[in-house]
Amino acid sequence: MELVGKSALVTGGAQGIGLGIAKRLHAHGAGVALFDRNEDAVADAAASFGDRALGVAVSVTSAEDIEHALDMATGAFGTTTILVNNAGVGFMTPILDTPEEDWQAVFDVCVKGTFLCTRAFGRRIVAGWLPAAIVTIASLNAFAASDGIGHYASAKAAVSQFTKVAAAEFAPLGIRVNAVAPGLTRTPMAEGGFLSGRMFEEFLAHTPMGRAGEPDDIAKVVTFRCSDYAGWVTGVTLSVDGGTHIRGLHNYWAVAQEGVSA
Fold it and tell me: What is the predicted pLDDT for the residue at 147?
């Protein structure tokens, strides 16, 4: 799965799964451009690679920001042929208590951001007639619903369907588009809630492999999808969750609020 001579864009690349993906792609030889809205964090993350890395502060909800960031990546690496749409945000709130601005924020980052980055990247690839790969980070929650995450589950389901449509449209152009759907993974966001106390116990009880994922568990699969080894794979959303999708999910909200399994 060597990626020597190639370069990749990873959104939400300053920490968590995005940083893990960037590290794995870099380890396989790719140059990496990390896109993240946190200017200091993305600069520090890129510096930690030593070489073949660029950190760019960018909001994936801004088409203008994305174009500017792509220009910077092109200046550093030439035309990049790998895009990983990883940037995302989520909250836990029952539907009746969800502020409109929270719903919009989740869809702006997860869905609009994926669309804008894919469109901008795709236009540049088509202009150069280059083979390319796009991998989008969906979620176990795209398929397994739970109380309290109506906005996040809906957004990630939209991401999964968008992946299929993009795969169909882009296939004749030489661009493969796939998605990866992680389960519970050790990230800063998860450490703040899902990886503690009763909630963590419930996740493990529903995970046949009996552990939380690490960012590199996701990164290895993404790297495969970006490589020539997946050259005849497109339009597929693959669960990478230790088997959690087999058993379905518990009630997040009940566990979080009452400390008991639902």
Answer: 87
- 152 part of the active site: yes
Residue indicated by tokens 């690496």 = 77
pLDDT in tens, 226-256: 999 999 999 999 999 999 888 877 777 777 7
Check: CB of residue 50 under 8 Å from CB of residue 24.
Answer: no
Q: pTM here?
A: 0.93
Angle between helices 150-170 and 100-107 (to 10 degrees): 30
Q: Which two tokens stand for residue 244?
A: 């959690």
Strand, coil or helix: what is 136?
A: strand
Q: At 257, phi and psi to the nearest 5?
A: -90, -35
CA 262 to chain centre: 29
User: Residues 103, 152, 170, 224: which is the catalytic one?
Assistant: 152
What pLDDT, on a 0 to 100 scale, did the predictor assign at position 262?
41
Please, are residues 124 and 50 in contact by the beta-carbon 8 Å criterion?
Answer: no
Q: Strand, helix or coil at 186?
A: coil
Q: In what order do the strands lie in the sheet with 53-57?
A: 53-57, 31-36, 7-11, 82-85, 132-137, 175-182, 237-240
Report residue 194's pLDDT band, with 50, 70 and 90 as the boundaries.
low
Q: Count how many residues are written for the chain.
A: 262
Judge whether 216 and 110 are in contact, CB under 8 Å: no
The three-state secondary structure class of 36 is strand
4-19 pLDDT, tens per residue? 999 999 999 999 999 9
